[in-house]
Amino acid sequence: MPELPEVETVRRGLAPVVEGVQITQADVNRPDLRWPFPERMADRLTGKTVLRLRRRSKYILADLDSGETLLIHLGMSGRMTISGHTVGDFHHPHPAAAKHDHVVFHMANDARITFNDSRRFGAMDLMATGTEADFWLIRDLGPEPLGNSFDEDYLVARLKGRNTPIKSALLDQRIVSGLGNIYVCEVLYRAGIHPGRKAGEISAKRIRSLVPLIREVLNEAIAAGGSSLRDYRQTDGELGYFQHNFAVYDQVGNPCPTDGCQRTIDRIVQSGRSSFFCPQCQR
DNA sequence: ATGTGTTCCTGTCCGC
DNA sequence: TGCGGACAGGAACACA
Question: Does A141 fall in a domain?
């Protein structure tokens, strides 16, 4: 589920609770998620202080005072929740252990961070801090969509001659990293581009228009605390609310929100994934 | 190299 | 209620 805005929301929720705080204990309740955990992961986390929480694409990076960085990917169903801390005048009590609580971080400030992932498409790994450029999970990622190296000229050059549908191209993390199914659908709606259109056949002008729209959609979603689908929550249990702003995602049969458009939102399947769009407004 | 389909896993929902 | 099938925020992998 989590795309860039959800991961950023999780990072922002966790940061004030864990930055500068020691991990007193790490419970690792199974040997793997999508891949095996790194050797002696619990030992390499225990007693270490989290210096800083960063984000790269859909990865949360926790820099430790041991010189290692913990990488966390939430996959489709990964969740991180905080308990044992106080927000305003509300104290979040520790809940009972739940099914699929795979890793639990006990912090020196009595907060507890629980990683729960029913589908186990998530991942955790450790790398030497500062070696992102070479690290297998990070090295092939394209630019951050909210960063300076992602711009109109880059996207035009990158999509030139590509035969793949624009929907697939924007989901390709090597081209731009952080978008997922929801936000690609929303971006293409705002750009008026049909998801099935071949990337290389779209005019440079229309490709250029995608760049500010990608930034706009992601920034709006971050401001809304991400999208809460099914039971996704922010770290403090609050719901994000960007899902109320979906124009097309999961809106099959609902009216197109464009003024004067009489059509309803349609769905097609592209490489096994749903694309939602307005057949009138997106060409 | 590029494009496409499959696969990992669990949970939920919908029709019968 | 039960059962089967479709579908779900990701992305590596195998194969044409």
Answer: no
